[in-house]
Amino acid sequence: MITKVKANKSFRGTTKYVLEKEKAKIIGGNMYGKSTNELVEQFTLSAHLNPQLKDPCYHLMLSVPQTDRTLSDDELANLSQRHFANVIVLSRIKGDESQVKQPDKRISDTKLKQLVDEFIETELPAYDFFIARHSDKEHDHTHIVASRVNNLDGKSIRTWNNYAHSEHSARLLEREFQLTPLPSSWESKQKAMTRNQLERVESLGLPGEEIMRRAIEQVAANKPTMPQLIERLWREHQVKSIVSYYGHGGVRGIKFGIDVGSVNEDGSPRLLWKQGGNLNKYKCSFTKLQTELGINYDPLRDDSEIKRLNNFLETVENSQLNQQLIPTIFPKNAQAIAEIKYQLTPAKSDAKQRASSELINTISDFIEQSVVESTLIETLPQLTEQLSEYHQNLSAARTTYDKLLAAIAEREQLLSQRIVDVIADFIEQSVVESALTETVLELTQQLSQYKEQLVIAKTTFNDLNAVLATELQSYLEKRAISSISDYVEQSTVSSALTETVLELTQQLSQNQQQLSAGRTIFDDLEAAIVYLEQLHRSQKPVDAVALNKAQTLATDKLKLTPNQTAELYQYYSADLQNLLVTDRDKEIAIRALLDNKPSEEVEEIIFASPAGWTQDEARELVLIASNQLATQKSELEQSLDQKQRIESEFLAIAVPIAVELINWQLRESGSNSLRFKRATLEKQSRELVFTHDERGEIFRVAVNRNQSGELEYSPIYIGSVEIEDIQLWQKAERVLQQIIESEQQQELRQSKGISL
After folding, report:
1. Which ranges carry the MobA/VirD2-like nuclease domain (predicted)?
2. Most-buried pick from 12, 43, 202, 568 (CB within 10 A)?
């Protein structure tokens, strides 16, 4: 089976492509929708659970070869569903078992099947997906469109190594469903065939690239020399091999060519040429032929023979007669002479070697020329006989000529049909592109409307935020007063403490009156709480009996029943079963504190833990949780303060420069907008708007001058500020300074001219 897998951003584009094809129908999945809009709506809800995920749409394809049996809708749906489950389970495996390309390390087929069966039963329903069958080609194939987001926990499917996982899943399913087995790309050490290439194999036979690859592997099995490889490829398989050289003499590369039936404008055959590295980068480059296939190459011995073969192959026509002439024109004696020449030269010193080499070259050239001439003399009678036979066969070939014309006509008809198929594919692609264009236009209009609504809603949001802030402050103040009052009531254990409590009660009463009149802030109450706690810790108990009684009453007031603590512990420990006991109980304490539970009640909830905490340990655990919450709030406040500071500094830099630049633009051209490289500054009434082409509106401020002529501005909206924004306005300030200096120099020159 052929497989494809891809993650992308667009649920709508993928779903529309899959469903709106001719003869497309949904045969499986777990989604309630049947139309594109219904399915996209459900996918979008799933994607909202993980908004940080950039590519939430998962698209997988399975294609069964035409030579296999035709599968029913149920069989294809089951096959596709198991393929989807296989890919997800493989993406979760870690360690050596995840190495699917290494059979001795990867997970066993039995174990993987068990994991996949469990996953389909328990977890697969948590992923939104549908399976569609396409019947628009010569054989059926299926598309699986899914959301990568799990609807239960919001986690996403990992896409690391998903192509290898997809191929491994296909090999397992081929065995399980008794389909034609194919090698994976790492097994054949070459790129896997595409669906179109496989269709060509089924309809027209092997493509030229595959023919050349197989011919090279077959000839290389005997470990020949490089010239022998080139000669045998041509003589036995009609494959031309041309070696190219650099100017300094080194080998540049090798290319292979084969006649696949196409012709040039003048009617001559046009060969399909492929560089060795492009034909198969693992085996067929000039270097890999030696290291991977064991081809023997020595430049001193082989280069002259290779260059002669190059000259011959570049001029010879692609016919059987010329292929038979190769061993005659280039006999093995010449190659033997070259090998002897190579063996004689290395054993001498440099000076003697050069003299000997020149002498040997002269002798060998003479011998080679003599051998070639004698070989030609012997070959001429053979050629004469062959030509005589060819002349006799010519008369018999005339009857075959009509058959050849019929075959050519049939081939032209086949080529015409292929052209029609190509045009049809192009039209389908154009339809998809036009549909995408219409969708983009609709989305652009919708985004424009949303942007206008967002501008209107900003002012309402600011008002609502102010009201909420006021209500929240009032609510916190009331809660603080209530907590202090409860604490004071519980502290009345002795006459000495009673007097202190009365004083504090009077202070709190005054604070309450001041709060109602708006004359105090929450910090005073906080100081009072700190003072009360310090006083309570330093005060020695006056009456131990009364104190014990008061503690008993307080304990009885907060005491929860075992059933209540167990229920609360189970309620707050939801989704925390996978954590260690300590981490789980700390998280339970945080959740309870966030739910405004008192510390004593949180301690009682912690007592229900299977860890069996003591009272002191539970108190420490609650204290740790409380400190962690306080730290989180402090960090959040600091980040907000830092963001406001950066925005304030950015406006202080940008606004004065923007005012000067707009004023200069109005003086020069009368235009109220100024274009930057990737942004635009525009004056709208008394507002200045700076908009980035990709990130949208950066700031919008209202600008005016007071009676003293000083510039005043108030921000209406400020977006996300980045370092490049500050750098842009710093550069704009330098440009503005250059403009001012240039204008001053021009005014100075004009004034000098007038004085003269």
Report:
1. 17-82, 102-179
2. 43
Round to the nearest angstrom and report the end-to-end CA distance of the chain.
92
Lowest-confidence pick of 129-133, 314-318, 685-689: 314-318
Question: DSSP 3-state assignment of 467?
Answer: helix
- Is residue 112 helix, strand or coil? helix
Q: Walk across the sheet containing 696-705 and list its strands.
A: 673-675, 679-684, 687-692, 696-705, 711-718
Q: Where are the alpha helices (DSSP H) in 539-614?
A: 544-558, 562-572, 581-594, 599-607
Question: How many other CB atoms sit within 10 Å of the CB of residue 718?
Answer: 20
CA 285 to chain centre: 31
User: Is residue 289 a contact partner of residue 276, using CB atoms and an 8 Å limit?
Assistant: yes
Could you tell me the pLDDT band of residue 58, with boundaries at 50, 70 and 90?
very high
The neighbour count for residue 188, using CB atoms within 10 Å, is 15
At 240, phi and psi to the nearest 5? -85, 140
From CA 581, how far away is CA 609, in angstroms rounded?
A: 8
The pair of three-digit structure tokens given for residue 504, joined into one six-digit string: 């504090």
Sheet holding 269-275, edge to edge: 240-245, 251-263, 269-275
> How far is the CA of 49 from the CAs of 113, 148, 618, in angstroms?
29, 11, 35
User: CB-based contacts of 66: which residues, under 8 Å, 6+ apart?
Assistant: 138, 139, 199, 202
pLDDT of residue 246: 92
Q: In a 3-state reduction of DSSP, which class is residue 717?
A: strand
Q: Which of 568, 566, 483, 570 is nearest to 522 (CA)?
A: 483
Residue 364: both structure tokens together: 């060998």
C-alpha to C-alpha distance for 728 and 658, rounded to whole angstroms: 11
Q: Where are the domains of the chain?
A: 2-188, 206-330, 641-755
Helix 226-237 vs helix 208-219: angle between axes, to the nearest 10 degrees?
A: 130
**Domain range 2-188, its CATH number among 3.30.930, 3.30.230, 3.40.390, 1.10.287:** 3.30.930
pLDDT tens across 603-660, in order?
888 888 888 888 888 888 888 888 887 777 666 666 656 777 888 888 888 888 988 8
